[in-house]
Amino acid sequence: MLAALRRRCLEAQAPLVSSSLLAHFMAKAARPVARSQVLLPYLLGSDRAAYDLASEFVLPRLHPGGALLKADAIAALDALFARYGRKPWSPHLQRTWIEGFLSALRDVGVLGLGARREVVLVYAIRPEVFAFHLWGLWDSGLRGRVLIEHPFWTLLLLRPVEVRPLLDLAVQHGWWRVSLVGDVIEVQPAFGSLAEWIEHGLG
Fold this sequence. Notes:
This protein has about 200 residues and is mainly α.
């Protein structure tokens, strides 16, 4: 599944970070879950079915101890086909696709393993993954409050209220700077470029 995602990254468009910088991050990131999480926006941004399923089926169920059942996911996929007036895939293809989708959720820490493979865990985006994609938004020209209110963060399965705490973590790590003047928030990188941060901030 992740190998297929890496192929899709070659065609990434802003605000997704280029494949060369993504590869640099993957080589430097120490935690396997970070290397999986950083790919999630590339998957959801390139597959409408995956995005709709993630935002409409997964996000509302991201409560630790809850369940994401394969049968329910297949039913949600069927509903998507009906909504868009498309002929459903064969049962075998649907099952295979959903199994791959749920496997990706296990890789990023949404679901457990083994007997807990359909159980929702405490899902936490790694701060280095958040900081990496914040650079993508910054390099695409976004500034200020838009950086933390942009719908892009849904691609990391984040709710709006979960974004600011991750920004605060990035500040604590010394990766980003934040200042407030009244209701105006300014967000600035602490490094000269994403490549510089990957090389010297992640080590």
